Amino acid sequence: MPRLKKIALGCTAALPLVLASCMGAGGNIPSASTPITQSEAQTGAEAHPKLLAEFGGAMTGSHAQYVQQVGRNIAVQSGLGNAASDFTVTLLNSSVNNAFAIPGGYVYTTRQLVTLMNNEAELAGVLGHEVGHVAARHSQRRQARAQRNTLLGAAGAILSGIFLGDSGIGQRLSRGFLQGSQLLTLRFSRSQELEADQLGVTYLTRAGYDPRAMATVLQSLAAQNALDASLQGRGDATLPEWASTHPDPASRVQTARQMAGDRTGVTNRDTFLARIDGLVYGDDPEQGIIEGRQFIHPELRLAFTAPQGFYMVNGTRAVSINGQSGQGQLSTGPYDGNLSNYVRNVFRALGGSGQALAPASLQRTTVNGLPAAYGTARVNSGNGQVDVVVFAYEFSNGQAYHFATISQAGRSGVFTPMFNSMRRISQAEASRVVPRRIDVVTVRSGETVSSLANRMAYDNAKEQRFRVLNGLGSRDTLRAGQKVKIVVRGT
């Protein structure tokens, strides 16, 4: 089945996200780490396939081989293993900016985060930071403090403080909405983030890389963060696409520079750019793509439009729809041909075992030729009452898909235009959906930021996107012979 999967409505793996924290005051930084234990190796081996499923699967081919080579080289500097082969380094087919490592020698980065980098030292720095968390056993320390642990640690329910308070039903509902967009994370303290950054800088130095790369990749992450906020219509840049509970990278740039000092090393910029040329950028059509406020899935042959003022995040299990007045997601589940039962089952799963959740009534309708059913349940939460709506559609392939939304009581109508926008697309429309890719080009005489940015495969913010993608400030210019990245359409 294509990549839009059934939403997991209970707790999911808590995944540590990359390089997005405020820096705290110092601490003692260990120069070496205790090697991987048998127990950690077993934990990692059990978690590995679950993580692959959560983040779009492992990529193969030359791009993945290159990331594996760099990742193993930096990971072995940690002392967790004696040989590069002790580490499993995976390039994930995910359009979110993310990287993490787990006990047992498993290291991951998404292709999207790799495309934001501008040299090999930055790639090594990101992976080194995550290996640093594992080397310092940060997840074990955090897990020991949390009783609500899942695969790796305590799950953070971001929506709870917005609509649902800390009630049991609120926690279950918020986790359900967050999982599809990969927003559950492991929370690290400020001192732990500092330690992981310092370890990352140490590993860069040991491997011969320029340790200043830690600061430059943080700067790119902060710039991408701000750009995403602007494009999504958010008034601040504190919640990036990957919604990390490690706070803002912008505040850490200067500290990372201080950590590096006046040490230098190789960056392997040209090698890096050559090796990532052609890498998919943004959404993979096999998982559906977001174009502005529209989501379109060429394999599932469906499309819908998010409400005005909302933005979407495309996850491997669901598409999340986020705004100030509500949240929701599109997902799917087992379907036996009875759409009313399907809606009831979604409500039942959202309620969990602790509290029954059922719609006050069920309505049948037709939306753009699709049989549909929907219902609303009003739920008491710590912050007042909320409305949970499940709106399901039957497609001709014998599959059902549904929106599950949450909003303050009486305000679920904000999602009505979205519910009514669901449609089945034609094969011709599906065939026109092609991925975006990174194209590395050499700047020719007379070419400028403006002229190259005009080639970016977007309808808006072309120059801003180009500058962030290439780590260029607002006043930076280009020189002939320089290699830069642009985003193009291509199969």
UniProtKB/TrEMBL annotation:
UniProt KW keywords: Hydrolase, Metal-binding, Metalloprotease, Protease, Signal, Zinc
Record's keyword annotation contains Calcium: no
Span of domain LysM: 439-486
InterPro entries referenced in this protein's UniProt entry, alphabetically: LysM (IPR018392), LysM_dom_sf (IPR036779), Mito/Outer_Membr_Metalloprot (IPR051156), Peptidase_M48 (IPR001915)
Cofactor: Zn(2+)
One Pfam entry name: Peptidase_M48
MF terms in GO: metallopeptidase activity
Domain of life: Bacteria
PANTHER family hit by this protein: M48 FAMILY METALLOPEPTIDASE, METALLOENDOPEPTIDASE OMA1
The name this protein goes by in its record: M48 family metalloprotease
Native organism: Pelagerythrobacter marinus
